[in-house]
User: What shape does this take?
Amino acid sequence: MIPLDRPNETPRALRNRGRAETRQNCETYVEDRDAFDSGDRKFTFRKSIYGAPQVREVLKGTQHNKCCYCERETSPGRIDHFRPKGRVRQREGGDKIHPGYYWLAYEWDNLVFACEDCNLKKSDYFPLEDPERRARNHLDPLGRESPLLLNPYVDPDPRRHITFAGSACRPRTEKGHVTVNLLKLNRPLLQEGRQRTLSYLEVLCAVASDPDRRDTLRRAARCLVDSFARPDAPFSGMARDYLSAIAVEN
Assistant: This one.
């Protein structure tokens, strides 16, 4: 996982229809609060708004067509609500909390682009350090919450929480541990993809540092090595950790 910068301009669909829907949902909640809190009544959310083509394309472009959580190139991918919109669970097997973060369903800062696997693994889970401080409706302050799930658009240095030992994610903090376990970031498909990338990188590093190779070949290898750590490269967080480790060794 690498840090991401969200474009400041909110896509038109969210500015116009999204804000109108949010106002309506907030008003509806106040009118029938008990029914929504019990789960007897649920909101209907419009994918045509939060998943509008412009929203999807901006997020995909910002994330270089990669999942924001696992950094795997993904297509078509999903628009994921960082704070779940319909209902919430603190942990696996935990109780479902209604009504979820309905007021953030069309909020630009709450949307990310994710692969289908991470989206399904995350589901409606949103663990907090202190569940008693969870915002239960649009009248509660979000600032009281301390999420245990990493958000690369908010957390300035995800590597403080998750690093790599070879192709395996290694959590360094409670937040990293929860994120890795919840999203199953060491699942076989990801491990295989990261290992392939790491194998190519190891070969290129060997060529780039081999004094018996021609200078032109070594320079070409160095350029390719650098490309693995660029933000648009798949699994660039892992590549950065590997390159940092061998730089220290050398």
User: Anything to note?
Assistant: The mean pLDDT is 93. The radius of gyration is 21 Å. The CA atoms of residues 11 and 55 lie 6 Å apart. The first helix runs from residue 12 to 31.
